[in-house]
Predict the structure.
Amino acid sequence: MGTSLRLLIADDHPMVRLALRQWLQTEFNPERLVEVASGQAVLDALDIENFDLLILDLNMPNRSGLDILKIVCASR
């Protein structure tokens, strides 16, 4: 049985996302775990649903993680 955690992983490297996903599923068994590969995809995912935790790479294509972090903080 999973926890009610909803997690969003944002990293442009598939192997990093895979490692994080495997670890998070093993340790926390979240209800929902979403992976995205770009800054814009983070914003799109956050427009659709709420997450309890965002794991955010700072160096991603299109928009940096710092830009995304500023946008997310300003909208909360």
Q: What stands out?
A: The chain is about 45% helix and 20% strand. The beta strands are 6-10, 32-36, 53-56.
